[in-house]
Specification:
Oxidized Rhodanese, domain 1; globular; alpha/beta
Length: 99
């Protein structure tokens, strides 16, 4: 069972000043059209080649447009031993700040 978090919960953590590791797995053009400030951008297709940039000692929250790709990313990274949570609803459900 994948761990999930709502966009509202993520927004609350950021507003409280918590440092959270957000990984946006959308494509470059999608991220350029608007993203949560402070994200790390790793397109889903490159995730297995760039997971060495991530630490198994850190928790991560995965983000995409609607929650589908980030769900796949969450499943993949979890199978590799990472502590990951999927942001349900993705950027379509995000009401916080966008860069």
């Amino acid at each position: 069972m994948l761990k999930e978090i709502s966009p509202k919960e993520v927004q609350e953590k950021l507003e409280q000043g918590q440092v959270i590791n957000l990984i946006d797995v959308r494509e470059v053009d999608e991220v350029e059209s608007g993203h949560i400030p402070g994200i790390t951008h790793i397109p889903l297709g490159l995730l297995e080649f760039r997971m060495n940039e991530l630490s198994k000692n850190e928790p991560y929250i995965m983000v995409c447009r609607s929650g589908g790709r980030s769900g796949r990313a969450t499943q993949f990274l979890e199978s590799q031993g990472f502590d990951v949570t999927n942001m349900t609803g993705g950027m379509l459900a995000w009401e916080g700040e966008v860069k």
